[in-house]
Design brief:
The structure holds 2 protein chains of 2 kinds. Chain A contains 3 helices and 33 strands. Chain A is mainly beta. The two termini of chain A are 18 Å apart. In chain B, strands 1-5 form a two-stranded antiparallel ribbon. In chain B, strands 2-3 form a two-stranded antiparallel sheet. By secondary structure, chain B is mainly α. Chain B folds into 3 domains: 103 residues, no CATH class; 54 residues, no CATH class; 83 residues, no CATH class. The chains are: A mainly beta, B mainly alpha. At the A-B interface, helix 1, helix 2, strand 3, strand 4 and strand 5 of A face helix 4, helix 5, helix 8, helix 12 and strand 4 of B.
């Protein structure tokens, strides 16, 4: 029995992304070593990872980023008390991934003493590399490390009165490039060096109590953020546009930005056999203060020596208040009614006093300020009725109201200049669906939703939309077949502009295990999106046109897992994503961006056309082998190939091919 | 094993057209049955006789806490805490239909009712009744496997959380397989970093009806801001699109074929589709601000808006996000 279970579980472990994981822990089948009072299972996988990249190394690092070297590819330690009465703890679980040198490293720890405490730690590190690629002419680059950690401690986790405390930390540091435009609105752009130093610390304290069936949950937190990233340029820089006469010889900028956001959340809820409710209130009050000091030296647009200092100081505030009420009514075993009502109030306001000294002439200060208020209320009512044993009908009506108020202004020379505006928007949506279980193992779900908004804030927001969803699943012991379709159409048109967005998704998946030692997985998805939007831009004069974007993503994945001779486990897989765009062989002649300047096809049109479809392929075959050497030792090896290829985006400098692999030894008991 | 033999003999007898002789229970079990507590609770140790594979490793199961405490009443501990009193099941010599609470035979709503009897006390599941999963008949045992879990911490039915979610959300697997994506398949993130599969309150962004099942940061803000805290603000000058309609206005959060998870291949088309000046859109109802006449789109330098508008998520220095 145990061997059969292990045989079944090891191939599933091979599904893991990179590492051939150790034998997965089976709750019903203990293994490991027994010490007085505890059962211990442990595994460590130590290996060497390698890569060989041909093509755009930056794009590879952005997408995949595995490097060479020795790592602890993964480890799992579990210490479990056998009677549930351990001295200091009853459970200790520590899982790690990629420690040593991988771009995605993590460690998860759980320590628990039944009835007394529970402590969870999550630590993650991400080597975040961004080469800019098609964004900002490739001038915005980032090679940073992001670290995240979350600590959560609960006292008396199984009692009716619980206390919890938590701490989270999120930091980012490393070199980056950013740009600045100098010395006026027509000036050139210059890349600047940025030493990213950002840090967020969050502290949480709360409690949960159960009194007479009512559960009360209160949480208070403090979120502190600081950004002390210095920016500078040393030495003459001609700028991003060589024909531009503006140059920058030195720039130094300091912009410390600190603030905190204390928050409260209070919830009271109760579940009865036929009725339940959940009332919640939360408030986040945020304030951040800043100073901005920039000194730039260079030559201006008319080749004159120029120096400019900008000093700004001010603050931003954003309190967000939310209250919601859930009502769950279960009048019979067949009928379920849920109602969710929510109110939100967000008030943002900020100001900055701007002082500019240009060529040693100090200008009057300007006080700029902005306020943005968002109030909204939603109510969502859903009903589900089990009409007959295999048939469930469900439906819902959802309503949302929003008010946006805005003040945008400045004070200059004692004169106030402000624009105030308020607008409201309502959205009604209705949903109807059907769930069927016509045969054992077969389930069918179909639903449709329609929505109407009277005044969305943006041309691409949801206005008149409908969605159709369907899912069919057939599930038996060794076979699972799933088909899924989702469509979402939205049109948002007014007299001067129109926007339509049509999204269709189809997915088919199959999983089959004909033998205990053999299983197959296969899937195909198609994600289609086409949008048509009215746009306006300047190209010699104001041009009104349309912008269309077409994406036809086909994706397939195939995997085979096999277990041979009680010793060898093999996984072979292949995945591919291919965007075929609009199916045309090149971007020339594609009518994706039309202007109406006397019917003349301008160069602008072609340049834009090339960007409106983005055919590419991204494929990755892989194979992994795990051999059992002894009862406690396995040897693993894996290989994965990545090929990224842009079909006709010019220049196609982002293409790459990468061979990656690893070999490792896994020791476990 | 002995019990199985007895069952086989009884079934064989029935096939021969004879009235099945009721086999005698093994003595220890018979004693346990006769000593059953009111309501028919016999205790988990009796279950071990026929289900040793389940009971043997049960000390590793989080549900073992109820046994370990020794304080819980019979109906809230061990096997019978979930499956109900075992007396009738034993007297019938086993069989799934004789288990008072056999989860594979329950309707999804009954499964939910049963699990929430204990797990409903946690705030994280306070919204489960109106979650899309509950409304879609996805009950607890669709994702959790109490006895055959491959993930001890949350008793998930699959070892990796994303594989579990992909079982139904195959289209999302595609999105996370794109060149630009959040690192879910790489094991760096999990679906629950952003989503609460047990339901969430309505979103405080967009119109509140979508997206569903997305968790909140700091109580009521968009989940993205938990990690992307540098985009959170508050800024002196907010990009209203970020606050009003959320990050999804410009980004595909799961994955994209476009850099920075953008919805469009180029930055300028992303921007121009809103910044077309057409009323009644925008904060002032006069259209979202049209670019100025100095931006001649025939010049490539103007086709990368964020080269100059570098603080596009919000700025403290410039209302046009130039610094």
């Amino acid at each position: 029995m145990r061997n059969i279970l292990i045989t079944l579980l090891i191939p599933s472990a091979l599904l893991a992304q990179r590492t051939v994981a150790p034998t997965t822990e089976d709750v019903g089948n203990p293994r490991g070593q027994n010490t007085p009072g505890y059962n211990i299972t442990n595994s460590v996988e130590l290996g060497y990872r390698w890569r060989a990249v041909d093509g755009n190394y930056g794009a590879y690092r952005s997408d995949i980023n595995f490097g060479n070297g020795i790592r602890v590819l993964g480890s799992q330690l579990r210490v479990q008390s056998k009677e549930g009465h351990g001295w200091l703890f009853d459970e200790l679980t520590l899982n790690t991934q990629g420690l040593g040198n991988d771009p995605y490293q993590s460690a998860m720890l759980r320590l628990e003493k039944n009835g007394i405490y529970r402590y969870d730690l999550s630590w993650r590190l991400n080597e975040y590399f961004n080469p800019g690629l098609t964004i900002a002419n490739g001038l915005h680059r980032m090679d940073t490390r992001r670290r995240f950690q979350d600590h959560d401690f609960i006292l008396f986790p199984q009692s009716k009165f619980r206390l919890f405390a938590g701490y989270s930390r999120n930091s980012q540091d490393g070199p980056a490039l950013i740009t600045v435009q100098q010395f006026d609105s027509r000036g050139d752009e210059f890349p600047l060096f940025m030493d990213v130093k950002r840090q967020r610390n969050e502290y949480r304290l709360g409690g949960e109590a159960e009194i007479s069936g009512f559960k009360l949950n209160i949480l208070h937190g403090w979120d502190n953020f600081k950004d002390d990233t210095p920016i500078r340029l040393n030495g003459q820089n001609p700028g991003a546009n060589p024909t531009d006469t503006v140059t920058l010889s030195a720039l130094q900028r300091g912009e410390p930005y600190h603030g905190n956001s204390p928050y409260w959340r209070a919830v009271i809820f109760r579940n009865l056999k036929r009725f339940g409710f959940n009332a919640r209130y939360s408030n986040v009050s945020g304030r951040r203060d800043f100073r901005f000091d920039e000194l730039a030296l260079g030559t201006g647009r008319f080749s004159a020596e120029t120096n400019r200092q900008i000093a700004i100081f001010g603050s931003g505030r954003r309190p967000v208040t939310n209250a919601s009420l859930n009502l769950n009514m279960l009048p019979s075993n067949k009928l379920t009614v849920t109602s969710h009502t929510s109110f939100n109030n967000t008030r943002m306001d900020g100001n900055g006093t701007y002082v500019e000294t240009l060529n040693s002439n100090k200008n009057d200060s300007i006080l700029n300020f902005q306020s943005l208020g968002i109030k909204s209320a939603q109510t969502l009512t859903d009903v589900s009725y089990a009409a007959a044993k295999p048939v469930v009908l469900y439906g819902g009506y959802h309503y949302s109201w929003r008010e946006i108020s805005s003040i945008d202004g400045s004070v200059f020379g004692g004169q106030l200049d402000a624009i105030r505006y308020t607008q409201q928007n309502q959205l009604h949506s209705a949903l109807a669906g059907l769930r069927l279980r016509p045969l054992p193992g077969l389930s069918v779900q179909l639903d449709a939703e329609i929505g109407r908004a009277d005044r969305p804030i943006y041309p691409i927001s949801d206005r008149n939309y409908h969605a159709l969803n369907g899912r069919v699943q057939y599930k038996r012991k060794s076979l699972t077949l799933t088909a899924l379709t989702r469509t979402f159409y939205n049109t948002n048109s007014v007299s001067l502009t129109s926007h339509s967005s049509r999204s269709r998704q189809y997915s088919y998946d199959a999983s089959w295990s004909p033998q205990s030692w053999l299983s197959f997985d296969a899937g195909y998805s198609k994600l289609h999106l086409d949008t048509l939007s009215g746009i306006a831009y300047f190209a010699g004069g104001l041009v009104n046109g349309t912008s269309s974007y077409v994406s036809n993503l086909h994706s397939g994945n195939l995997g085979v897992r096999a277990h041979f001779l009680k010793r060898a486990d093999l996984f072979a897989g292949y995945s591919i994503i291919r965007d075929t765009g609009d199916g045309l062989p090149s971007y020339f002649g594609i009518v994706t961006f039309t202007t109406n300047i006397g019917g003349v096809l301008s160069t602008t049109r072609q340049a834009v056309s090339s960007a409106q479809v983005f055919p590419l392929s991204y494929q990755s075959p892989q194979a992994r082998l795990s051999l059992k050497l002894t009862s406690r030792l396995r040897w693993n090896a894996g290989y994965q190939f990545y090929a990224y290829h842009e079909e006709f985006f010019i220049p196609a400098y982002q293409n790459y091919r990468a061979h990656t692999g690893y070999t490792s030894l896994l020791w476990s008991f | 094993m002995r019990l199985y033999l007895l069952v086989v003999l009884a079934v064989a007898g029935k096939l021969h057209g004879q009235a099945p002789a009721k086999p005698a229970l093994p003595k220890p079990i018979a004693e346990a049955v006769s000593a059953a507590k009111p309501g028919g609770f016999v205790g988990s140790s009796v279950c071990r006789t026929c289900h040793p594979d389940v009971v043997q490793g049960f000390f590793k199961n989080p549900h073992y806490k109820s046994l370990a405490s020794g304080k819980e009443p019979a109906g809230k501990t061990g096997c019978e805490g979930c499956h109900g009193p075992g007396k009738s099941h034993i007297e019938a010599l086993g069989g799934k239909t004789t288990i008072p609470v056999a989860y594979s035979l329950l309707t999804p709503r009954k499964v939910l009712d049963s699990c929430l009897a204990c797990h409903g006390k946690d705030y994280a599941r306070a919204d489960i009744r109106h979650s899309a999963h509950s409304q879609g008949d996805v009950a607890c045992n669709s994702c959790h496997s109490v006895h055959k879990s491959q993930s001890p911490k949350f008793l998930l039915a699959k070892q990796r959380q994303p594989d579990l979610c992909y079982g139904c959300h195959a289209n999302v697997r595609t999105q996370f397989s794109m060149p630009f994506k959040h690192r879910v398949n790489e094991g760096f993130m999990n679906c629950t970093d952003c989503h609460n599969p047990h339901g969430t309150p309505a979103a405080s962004w967009r119109m509140g009806l979508r997206p569903r099942m997305v968790g909140h940061s700091l109580g009521n803000e968009e989940a993205c801001l938990k990690c992307h805290s540098d985009k959170r603000g508050p800024f002196a000058f907010e990009h209203a699109a970020v606050r009003v309609d959320g990050c999804e206005t410009c980004h595909n959060p799961h994955g994209s074929t476009n850099a920075k998870l953008l919805r469009r291949t180029s930055v300028f088309t992303t921007c121009l589709e809103c910044h077309n000046g057409a009323p009644p859109f925008g904060r002032t109802g006069e259209g979202v601000v049209l670019q100025t006449g100095t931006h001649d789109m025939r010049n490539p330098r103007y086709q990368n808006c964020t080269t100059c508008h570098v603080r596009i998520h919000g700025s403290n220095a410039d209302r046009r996000f130039l610094r």
